[in-house]
Amino acid sequence: MTRPPRRRVDGVLLLDKPPGLSSNAALQHAKRLFRAEKAGHTGTLDPLATGLLPLCFGEATKFAQALLDAPKRYTATLRFGTTTTTGDAEGAVVAQRTPTFDSAALEAALASFTGTIAQVPPRFAALKHEGRAYYDYARAGLDVPRVARTIEIHALRLLAWSSPDAIVDVECSKGTYVRTLAEDVGGRLGCGAHLAALRRTASGPFTLEQACTLDALAALDEAARDALLLPVDAALRDLDVLPLDQAAGEALRQGRVLPTAGIGDGLRRAYAAGTFIGLVEVAAGAARAVRLVRTDATSA
Known about the structure:
Blueprint: E1 11-17, H1 23-34, E2 39-41, E3 50-57, H2 64-68, E4 72-80, E5 82-84, E6 93-96, H3 103-111, E7 115-119, E8 128-129, E9 132-133, H4 134-139, E10 149-162, E11 165-172, H5 178-188, E12 193-203, E13 206-207, H6 214-218, H7 222-227, E14 240-244, H8 246-253, E15 258-259, E16 266-272, E17 275-283, E18 286-292
Parallel strand pairs: 3-12, 14-16
Antiparallel strand pairs: 1-3, 2-3, 4-11, 4-12, 5-6, 7-10, 8-9, 10-11, 12-13, 15-18, 16-17, 17-18
């Protein structure tokens, strides 16, 4: 069977990832539906997890790092009294205890994990030690040093509590492992815990309400799918705008530095005659190109 030809697709798709698929598998499925030449996702969700997974196509992949670095929000189900090998529901049960704490103790434990904290990544993680992923060592029954990382828990709210399950709303920085957070809260309460379910509800400026499912995508024709794409610069919408005329935009493309007297330092999204041309950095009264889009790039 002949595979349909790939095509140029530029933009950001907000996908509601289903359970049972890795982030990469979901990406590849969407990429096939769009017949896209190039695509990447912006923050891994485990197969167990569901929810918002922004996908970048074409020129938008140049700015995926902004969403990788963005804060995230989740609805998580913490199951107390049961610990597992992986920290989530996919692992084998290690130990079981009966939770004896009340909601007040749970609220206090959650509050103790808000703010800037040090978190030791789980054994089953994609982080690398001497060139190999942690999960490779874990599957081989080997322990390797795991260095604690500084993360930020912006908010940790209890939404519902019916022993042994607590549903919590988590707002956190990039690099946060919610399954490790579940284990740590369970450890603080003396009975252990694991992550029973996880749904990402926000990533940077985007929310789950804006996302579509793979099934919904598959039911659309190509024009309707394309209409769902956000512009190439969507991931940068939190940055200030640097408006330029056509000549200044061309100067940036040629690698020249533009004077920007009176404009504060920092990253900005640049537009030449109203058209997005890329990411620039303003410093010491001058603007330099960081990443520019192709001159024929579409904006979805």
